[in-house]
Amino acid sequence: IKFTFPTAGSAVSGDIGIVRVGFDEVINPALSKVILQNVAAHVMADGDGYGSCDALSCHLYFGHLATGIYTVIYDVFTTTGGELQGHFAFSVSENQ
Description:
The chain contains no helices and 8 strands. The chain is mainly beta and about 100 residues long.
């Protein structure tokens, strides 16, 4: 992984509106997906294919997230045939 937004393990305040995962390798957007879950494993947002991924990253747009811990799960395929799977968590707190 090249980057995550929010940063893996970070605490954010207020609404962020997007999560994003960037990759060091070129991925196949048509075969790649990303999911946002809350701490109870309820899917808050999901996307696959060209609507959520491009050649170097995947993202999700969403509305308000309640205070809590969230996990971003990604499953992407590189253009060389490799598969990259993983996840990262972040927490949301109220606006300060």
